[in-house]
Amino acid sequence: MNLKSMFQKKKAALYRAWLMKVAGLSLFVAANPILSFASTANIEDTASVNQWPWTKFLNSLAQQLTGPLPLTLGVLGLAAAAIAMFTGNHGAGTQKFIVLIFAVSICLFAPNFIDIIHNSAGGATIYGLL
User: Fold this and answer.
1) What range defines the domain where residue 83 resides?
2) Is residue 89 part of a domain?
3) Nearest CA among 91, 75, 72 for reference residue 83
4) Contact indicator for 112, 88 with CB cutoff of 8 Å
5) CA-to-CA distance for 16 and 34, rounded, in angstroms?
6) 25-40 b/e with 16+ CB inside 10 Å = b?
């Protein structure tokens, strides 16, 4: 028996032992009645999502990223990035900058585009509403 096969067998045995320990610990935590108090907690006692401190910022950011201005900037950015990609020879830094503009434009345009699709008749078939 060579050294490599011995090492592989020992590694496999250690891995199986580790899996057994993890499985045993998971079963213990799942079946232990003392540790099940977290799942029976009163839901009214926990803070709702609207009371988290960062939701006000995220909601205002979501409102700023939807509307006519981001839609216009997204379309213009997509057009400018597409034209810049097809114009020819660029350095690596310029190509990365163009791809960055392309990605940001897609992020600005996507929510409005999905909203347009959702509100149209074609969107009803895409979302499975008909």
Assistant:
1) 66-126
2) yes
3) 75
4) no
5) 29
6) eeeeeeeeeeeeeeee
The answer on pLDDT for 36 being more than 60 is no
* pLDDT surpassing 80 at residue 8: yes
pTM of the model: 0.44
Query: Does 37 reside within a domain?
Result: no
And the tokens for 119?
């509100």
pLDDT digits (tens, 9 = 90+) for 54-100: 777 777 777 777 777 777 888 888 888 888 888 877 788 888 888 88
Residue 88 within any structural domain of the chain: yes
Within a domain: residue 1?
Answer: no
Number of domains forming the structure of the chain? 1
Q: For position 108, what pLDDT does the model report?
A: 79
Length of the chain in terms of residues written: 130
The Cα–Cα gap between 70 and 78 comes to 12
